[in-house]
Amino acid sequence: MLLTIPTAVTPPWTSMLGFSLLPAVVMIAGAALAVWRAPGPQLRSAILHFAAGVIFSVVAVELLPDIVQHHAPYEVTLGFGLGVATMLGLRYFTQRLEKKETAGKESDSPATGSAPTVASAALPWGLLVAIGIDIFIDGLLLGIGFAAGAKEGTLLAIALTIELLSLGLATAVELRQDGHGKGRTVAIVAGTSLMLLVGVGIGTTVLRGATGNLLEIVLSFGLAALLFLVTEELLTEAHEEAETPLLTLAFFVGFLLFLLLGMIA
Fold first, then answer.
1. Separation of first and last alpha carbons in the chain
2. Integer Cα distance of 53 and 51 in angstroms
3. Exposed e or buried b for every residue in 195-228, given b needs 16+ CB within 10 A?
4. For every residue of 106-147, which 3-state class applies, written as one string?
5. Is the dihedral of CA 104, 105, 108, 113 positive or negative?
6. Could you read off the pLDDT of 42-75 as tens digits, one per residue?
7. HSE of 83 in the Cβ direction (CA atoms, 13 Å)?
8. Mind giving me the DSSP string for 191-242?
9. Are 84 and 224 in contact (CB under 8 A)?
10. What is the pLDDT of residues 176-196, one digit of tens each?
11. Its pTM surpasses 0.90
């Protein structure tokens, strides 16, 4: 698996850069698509369900097998605990920030009670930070995959492209729902997608010669961040609409799709 990096011929930097850019570009394209033709409430909920299913599948297919295989309970506890503490801490501070911004807007609003302008819309920091960490961990996995060999990295890049497409759609939908302009929405998603390249760079350089224990901590941290993203952000937003069998099916379709790709890889 990804934690145990065998001796393999690392593909050229040009190939790694191309396959690393593919998921990021597709994520931006997904955001642009959502901005160009804004989905309705039901489609928005379906996108969020699908994205949650894909990320749950990432946890089951890519992270848990490697984490369990190495039998390092102390490292897993440390990494997972740090992940939970970080996400809870980020939520606490971002919620305080959002409350301050909301209070400031209300005090600056005219007596007629008109809505704040689009430019002053508050950013959903909890969602953006969680997605940024998710993408960063994806980049680490992709970098480690390329360090293991060209085939492993290529297949993982294809799987991550599907994940980031759904994340780009879901993030753009959420930003538009909060009142952000089209250009700003695409720009925010584009900036977030850069975390993938950062993760790939670290995965192919710093972590390439790292020990299994260090990787256990990193992946356990990512595991906690991914679970937090799904349960506390994506599904929470998705369930704002009345649940239907088709919306529930979108979650399982996303899970199955990445599961099958993981089996091929």
1. 10
2. 5
3. bbbebbbbbbeebeebeeeebbbbbbbbbbbbbb
4. HHHCCCCCCCCCHHHCCCCHHHHHHHHHHHHHHHHHHHHHHH
5. negative
6. 887 888 888 888 888 878 887 788 788 888 899 9
7. 24
8. HHHHHHHHHHHHHHTTTTT--HHHHHHHHHHHHHHHHHIIIIIIHHHHTTSP
9. yes
10. 887 888 899 999 999 999 999
11. no
- Residue 39, SS3 per DSSP: coil
Residue with tokens 């299994």: 212
> Can you tell me the mean pLDDT for 11-25?
76
- Report phi then psi at 160, rounded to 5: -70, -25
In the numeric block, the tokens 């508050």 are attached to 122
Q: What are phi and psi of 183, to 5 degrees?
A: -65, -40
Distance (Å, whole) CA 82 – CA 223? 11
Q: How far is the C-alpha of 226 from the C-alpha of 58, rounded, in Å?
A: 9
Place of tokens 């993982």: 156
Place of tokens 């490292």: 75
DSSP letter, residue 4: S
Q: Are 262 and 62 within 8 A, CB to CB?
A: yes
- Residue indicated by tokens 């990295």: 153
**CA 219 centroid distance within chain:** 14
Token duo for residue 21: 């850019």
The CA distances from residue 51 to 54, 84, 141, 144, 235, in Å, are: 5, 21, 18, 23, 9
Other C-beta atoms closer than 10 Å to the C-beta of 56 total 23
**For the chain, domain boundaries:** 13-101+124-264
Q: Which amino acid is at 75?
A: E
